[in-house]
Design goal:
14 helices, Pdz3 Domain, single chain, binds iron/sulfur cluster, globular
Amino acid sequence: MTGLAIEKVIPGSIAEEMEIEPGDRLASINGHPLRDIIDYNFFGAEESLTLEIVKDDGEVWEVEIERDGNEPLGFIFPSPTPLQCGNRCIFCFVHQLPAGLRSPLYIKDEDYRLSFLYGNYVTMANIGSEEIGRIKEQRLSPLYISVHATDAALREKLLGKAGIIPIMKVMEELAAGRITMHTQVVLCPGINDGDALEGTVADLAGLHPWVESLAIVPVGLTRHRKRLPSLQPVTKRYAAAFVAEWSRRASSLKEKLGGPFLFLADEFYIKGGVPFPLLDSYGDLPQLENGVGMIPLFLDEASQILERAAPLKPFSATVVTGESPYRYLADFLNALGRITGVELCLVSVKNRLFGAGVTVTGLVSGRDIIAALKGRGLGDMVLIPDVMLKEGEGLFLDDSTVDEIEEALGTRVVVVEATPSGIYEAILQRSDLI
Ligand code: SF4
């Protein structure tokens, strides 16, 4: 079918005025056929528009629109169906998932369009000259690129695929087209560290400012790695030595390039038990979604909350977290409890679903929460960070729901933003009800 299916029409919008309805298709704008929402945004930016609408019954309408400036047309389209990757990365998290999780988790998406729209990381291993031309023409910038290694042979080994177009060739072309890129390396000890990493960092820094940032994140290994290549985990000792070496190199690069470029994921500092740099050193936090700078941001916000917190009507609550951020959260909750008089008990949940090597909060499942809390005195409510749930759907990774947890524990469960202010707001609201 040609064009884009219209999912919703915003009431009172130009589209509604034109009697365009959900279920109709927007086939073209000003004669340009539409492949996806990116084409819609690109070709739909003009003030004078001719829309070709295919109605539900097959009738074709031509709709002329004159609008003021950027007045929205009022269409809502579904997200594009992601293209799938043909790689077999040796560290792929999808290959390490147990059976029985939410089905979208098994999708191996690799789509430069989603990289532009939502900041998803892509390897560009399936990119062709047509797509590169489109990226440059439509200025799909910034893009988020999983580099892992710039050496072509090593990259093929890491991606588990032969005959991939060298990533530097792709990125040089994008840089020449003035496309900004954020990049990452998933660090596999003994494979793409050492000299290989030095080469990768130097190559990417050579494309600065078009390569705006590079995050190094440690490989994540679950206990479900049957029939997969053997990989070394990032140990405490490795992480501490890595931070010592690479934070020094990040500082020299910062000086050389005139701003922060190379970032180490929070997990390195947590695993290595070494202090974090100051929040200021993360610039405008370009790799926050990639787990870079989250703890410094949390600590900074925590100190602001503690400055304004005041005594509340006393009650007790349990706060749930993954194992990694436990010590940072514990310090904050202890201090908040002392100021407010609220008894806050922090429980770190062991990840039995993925295994002991997975300690981040966002990968904690509902059943593991129940196992960690069952039989404990939980107080008046249990606070669960929203990052454990699928956005907008209230489902944990293992498909369990907040209601099921509430029923199993016999205590009120409140989902809160995983930030100091999210926790503080939740206890303020509870205290107001007493
Ligand atoms: S690109 Fe690699 S890590 Fe990402 S989904 Fe594909 S195989 Fe997995």
